């Protein structure tokens, strides 16, 4: 019993030996940007820690005359400090980024890559932003989600789409956090671009399994994006222009002349497409000024922070982005306008407080809003003046509070705990209708309010040299209508170090998801609807087990991970067969049918293996990722209750990514992807269905007198036989992209011309398949039609697409 | 298209000419250029391509059977067809037969089997129910053989459910122009009692008729029938299940004979008739009809709805139903 007590209290008991804490913030030299995930360790031992999301580290060690600490981070020079540890020390460290000077040849042996074998965390991928900027981009738009799609275990949807499918989960099962705020719709332009502007981001991290207890609320992945804080030293800018959009980022210190070091800094970043600006004069000209219309999207990121000293720091950050499609017609006595808008807004206010050198706290106030709107307005002027207006909108809005504590009692333990609560307001449909002619005015809002909460504790524990554990428990709660869901979520992951560079890892995670995305297209349209769990629709739940190996090859800087996973998902929801998003066909009909009567819930299974061989640094960097996986679904009301492969079940998925620094001025990069085709439902044959008429039939006698007759007449209707659902496989997807960047340092700035080519060998990848009927011509006489034939066509959307873009930095 | 891309291409490379000399591997760059130019040329081809039919699962032509048996019907009619491949030439014959001849159609009940012959006039396999009476709660097996292919199915006739009452009422029409003679619609509701302990499926419909005496020439009159389908909420008839109401007294939605139908002039006295029908049918019938009515094979993005079948070795539907009608004047 005593032993057990000691075991439990182990992190808190004080030892007879005097111990002191060395703690502080790790920042980038120059910009003073706080660095996340920097390894801090005593060389040739396993004693060490990692900096947290705010760049803070804390290490408690026995008193010694000489202690050496190494601070190591990918893409930065290692820093080594030796000091006497006879009291608590505050060590703020700055790391020097490598490759900043273009004149140097960027080959460095000093560069240390984070070792995949050293962390207990598995199924986690972080991608340096610098690498994202070097990978070929579609139409010159560097897109974080497209790079994430190149990782094993992550699949893309259809051609060109940015939606991500992680280990058999849908796009709604990804918790996408931008500075802690969830982003509900990550798509611009119907999914061809994501809302994340790489220039404003500091770090991107994806977790696919073995989730730490601090995360909750989605089944399949956590994608955490952190915005840059803003340079504290001097004003910096970054920007560029491609075929479809331009962007500009400015960051710099906010200080008075008397301050030697800025206590505050800002970042502001914007992006906008300009196809509409080019098209509008053409539309106006063709309609003699009466017509106007277009499409554009924009993003705006902003962040400001204030440093009150070592103990307190405050950050305020926000994102705002919209897609707008609109048309207007201003004829003499008729005006018409309409459009489609959707967009997200997020905001985060954070306060870091250091209680002491071992206890770090963060409090966050989080806001997120997603709104989709369709509107149409017609008005006639003159003698018959009438007006008609219809607005339909749907959306979700969150207000959240979060409080997290990081406690570093000793090098063996890093404890995190916290509590969070989010107030959701879902608006599946809000309709405003004004109609002069029928004297109708209607304004209906169907809002649903819910509260989602969670409390967690987790410990990263190193009991000995060979074992590292991260164990935690999260308890989540959701209030839906009259029902309260209260669920524990157990999480554990462990790494057993077999050799210093080779470890065996295993993890288990249980997740709950209380909100659902209803989509009947699966391609990420803005009409997809976020809805909460209700009395009828239970929360989604998953359990995932993963095991794997991680090996670092120190000489080459390669890291290899091999993982296998098995995931079970319960209560995943889908539209019933034939049910559709009514709101598009008839916005006024939206309020008549409740969404939860149109859905069916089911089970899902996903299992597979993933291999990632990655090199993050050096002249040649990149990765090879391969996934072998199976995903199956079973719904009582789909496919007659039989199991089937969902659309994005993908047997093989391979990505090759290479970045080669030909010289300091030229970077060549390429990606090649291959994926098994989507599972689709295709007709196998056609037949005529004779339906039984339910209504009375009437015969007329010779005198014209009608009478009812008792036969069972039948009405033919032509239908397709599809066989089992999704039994057709689309053709495999593959594509090669290439990019060539020319960097040059000018007197005041650095510029990059980039030529990128999407789909270099012009593969016709399927976007969808379509049946069409066309006439058969007489071979002897081309004008004579001898019959009709039905053919299956593949519709591709992107052939080879070269793009030239210009980027600058100062 | 081609010119546009070439412009981008040349703009990019004229800008970069001075760099070429410095490139470490000019060979690689030249290779790239060749690829690029080649790419531009081929990219001008169409993005819509025909797919080799071999990619679709091989389809064999399956037997398609339709038959709905009822104790209230005097005939047993079975339709036999063969499904067509999706791709390829579309058969030219303008009107397809309701049923193809040449099949052996066997119907079995309580160990007794009859063969249903092909009726060339009705273009179906038809036999009078005298040859095989259709009774409630009995099971009937169907076996169809055509060109070596066999399809089988069975159905069980549901119990007859009676309309216990038809409630007639009237409703004033909105926006009346004159208050002297108010206009009103006739409204109807049907009542019946659900059979307890089983899931039941119903369909309700109604029709009203009247004969109008129309003058076509001086002293020449013609009797013209005037027919109205009474809608109980759905287009032709409304589907009802007893989900959540097992064994209870059921009340239909409201059906209407609108005033516009009522006030037609020159109606032949005594010609106004109304009929209400309550059908009770099997689940297979319900599933099949629901799926076919929802069927939309034209949207490439939406998930298609699959049409179920209870025909083993084939497609279609073989099901039983009962029919209860109330006829009267209005």
Descriptive terms for the model:
heterodimer, A: mainly beta, 5-stranded mixed β-sheet, 5 helices, 49 strands, 4% helix, B: 330 residues, alpha+beta, 9-stranded mixed β-sheet, 16% helix, disordered N terminus
How do you describe this structure in short?
With 810 residues, chain A is mainly beta. In chain A, 4% of the residues lie in helices and 59% in strands. Chain B has 330 residues and is an alpha+beta fold.
* Class by alpha and beta content of chain A: mainly beta
| Count of individual beta strands of chain A | 49
Overall geometry of chain B: globular
Order of helix and strand elements from N to C terminus of chain B: HHHEEEEEEEEEEEEEEEEEEHEHE
Textual characterization of the structure:
The complex is a heterodimer of chains A (810) and B (330). Chain A is mainly beta and 810 residues long. Chain A is built from five helices and 49 strands. In chain A, the strands form eleven sheets. Chain A has a 22-stranded antiparallel barrel. A five-stranded mixed sheet of chain A has the order 9-16-17-12-13, with no helix packed on it. In chain A, strands 1, 4, 7 and 8 form a four-stranded mixed sheet that branches. The longest helix of chain A is centred in the middle third of the chain and has 12 residues, at 275-286. The radius of gyration of chain A is 30 Å and the shape is globular. Chain B has helices spanning 2-15, 17-20, 26-43, 259-262, 283-294; strands at residues 48-50, 63-69, 75-82, 84-85, 88-89, 104-109, 112-115, 118-119, 124-128, 139-146, 149-156, 165-172, 184-193, 201-217, 220-230, 238-241, 249-251, 255-257, 273-281, 314-328. The longest helix of chain B has 18 residues, at 26-43. In chain B, strands 2, 3, 8, 9, 14, 15, 16, 19 and 20 form a nine-stranded mixed sheet that branches. In chain B, strand 6 (104-109) and strand 7 form a beta hairpin. Chain B is built from five helices and 20 strands. Strand 40 (685-692) of chain A pairs antiparallel with strand 4 (84-85) of chain B.
